[in-house]
Write a structure and sequence with these properties.
Number of strands: 35
Helix content: 10-25%
Bound molecules: uridine-diphosphate-N-acetylglucosamine, calcium ion
Number of domains: 2
Number of helices: 8
Strand content: 25-35%
CATH superfamily of the largest domain: Spore Coat Polysaccharide Biosynthesis Protein SpsA, Chain A
Largest sheet: 21 strands, parallel
CATH class of the largest domain: Alpha Beta
Length: 463
């Protein structure tokens, strides 16, 4: 909207969080709180978008990758009214309307903001505010109305009388105002209140006193405007959001066996007929194809799974690409840079890192595959280790197609095994092996008949 400016307030410390981290950087469903109102703000395509920062300003700025933000610094946190005042210069001469959002009200939707703007324009108001009614309004500014129901003012919890505290209609902390009215009204604010702050909601009284038109929009779904001020509120909202996300995926055709213990972050995508067991965490930009099975206790971050993938019980996957039909686990750890081709099997106690493994290859037991390229239909025996690190540098191991790596082999990188190589059991491979060759170490086992009995006799004689 070309005639819209938006200010997001995010300068507060969030004292009630008792944290070194600025409040708006606390995470909800894996993303900083501030990212939620920002995302909705950007959907409205404002001409100007200003974010007021103060506490941890640099960290907050660094967390936002969105382009087109004008950063406004509020050096001292003197209140929400003062914070908006800090953005005055950005909107000097701006003809449109100003929408003000709170960085700590994450579930607000752009559709609701559009309703608010529409009402503001219909009523030709100087100021329009978003309200809702809460069963438990503690902590919120209460909406004061005159006898005929007109908006009269907002009183903060700490300044409210006992009877005002009974009021259940609360201020969402989201407003639209004409900039000319707003910035002049801010000049009339005082900090003569319990918190010694310049309260933005006090502009309502200024408007009412000047006889300017004020309007309200009542949100019927109160969770949308809930603010985060404490860790408990954060935890409750996390739960609400998880329920919402889980419900969405179930509606889209995903089975969650125990939704209470499944955590799915906002940006995750899951295909139909995938079945997800208990204690599963799907994080970051994880994408899961159709008909996958995740047995449970899986911890996936930025993992991209094709279709028909089976993650057995207890696996950790980070920054991985997994093609169709792969089986992983139980108890496998796939670290960043792992790329598994179709129908690869990775079994128990296998760790991979920077490992590109071709279609149909298998590493089923007790193996470390780091900095390795494996061809197709190769079998990596139990206990195989790629020795990729000499204490100074990392080196690659390259293994061809249809290779048989015998159990308990160590492949000392850099080393290349051609196609169809056969590595005998317990071989240490230090040199490249040509295609089709057998590689083995020369020392054979020695056998001493009757040795144990003799040893025992000796030991017994000593004691
Ligand atoms: C505010 C409202 C209250 C409303 C509630 C809704 C005021 C005085 N009160 O209360 O009526 O019901 O939101 O959630 O506005 N901030 C700054 N600079 C400051 C102070 C705050 O940028 O100097 C930012 C905070 O980072 C936060 C937002 O403004 O994102 C709201 O501040 P907060 O202290 O959480 O206000 P509440 O007490 O929740
Ligand atoms: Ca708040």
């Amino acid at each position: 909207m070309s005639d819209l400016g938006i200010i997001v307030l995010a300068a507060g410390l969030g004292t009630r969080m008792k944290s070194h981290l600025p409040k708006v950087l606390h995470r909800l469903a894996g993303k900083p709180l501030i990212s939620y109102p920002l995302r909705e703000a950007i959907k409205l395509q404002p001409e100007k978008l200003a974010v007021v920062v103060g506490h941890g300003a640099i960290e907050v700025q660094e967390s936002c990758s969105e382009s087109g933000i004008t950063w406004v610094i509020q050096d001292e946190q003197l209140g929400t009214g003062h914070a908006v005042g800090c953005a005055r210069a950005v909107f000097q001469g701006f003809g449109g309307d100003l929408l003000i959002l709170s960085g700590d009200v994450p579930l607000i939707r752009s559709e609701t903001l559009e309703d608010l703007l529409r009402r503001h324009w219909e009523k030709n108001a100087a100021l329009t505010i978003l309200t809702t009614t809460l069963d438990d309004p503690v902590g919120y500014g209460r909406i004061l109305r005159s006898e005929n129901g007109e908006l009269a003012g907002i009183v903060e919890e700490r300044d409210a009388t006992a009877s005002q505290r009974q009021i259940q209609e609360v201020n969402a902390g989201i407003y639209v105002a004409a900039p000319k009215f707003l910035f002049s009204a801010l000049e009339n604010l005082t900090n003569a209140n319990q918190q010694g702050e310049y309260y933005l909601p006090d502009v309502v009284r200024v408007a009412v006193k000047n006889g300017q038109a004020v309007a309200t929009v009542l949100v019927t779904e109160p969770t949308e405007i809930l603010g985060i001020n404490t860790r408990e509120e954060l935890a409750i909202m996390e739960k609400n959001l998880q329920e919402r996300i889980n419900r969405k995926w179930m509606e889209m055709g995903v089975t969650l066996k125990d939704p209470q213990t499944v955590y799915i972050e906002e940006d995750v995508a899951i295909g139909r007929d995938t079945v997800i067991g208990p204690n599963t965490h799907l994080m970051g930009k994880t994408v899961i194809g159709e008909r996958c099975r995740l047995d449970g206790s899986a911890y996936l971050t930025n993992a991209c799974l094709g279709s028909g993938v089976h993650l057995r019980f207890c696996v950790v996957l980070t920054d991985c690409q997994i093609a169709d039909g792969v089986i992983v686990g139980p108890f496998a750890h796939l670290r960043p840079g792992t790329a598994l081709g179709r129908n690869v099997h990775i079994g128990n106690f296998v760790e991979t890192k920077e490992a590109r493994i071709g279609d149909g290859s298998k590493a089923n037991h007790l193996t470390y595959l780091g900095d390795v390229t494996v061809g197709r239909d190769t079998n990596i025996g139990a206990g195989t280790i790629t020795c990729n690190y000499d204490g100074f540098h990392k080196y690659r191991t390259v293994i061809g197609d249809r290779v048989q790596v015998g159990s308990d082999s160590t492949l000392v990188a850099p080393v290349t095994l051609g196609d169809d190589v056969y590595v005998a059991t317990a071989t240490t491979v230090r040199q490249d092996v040509a295609a089709g060759a057998l590689v083995f170490n020369e020392r054979r086992e020695q056998v001493r008949e009757g040795w144990t009995q003799e040893k025992r006799k000796k030991m017994e004689a000593k004691s």
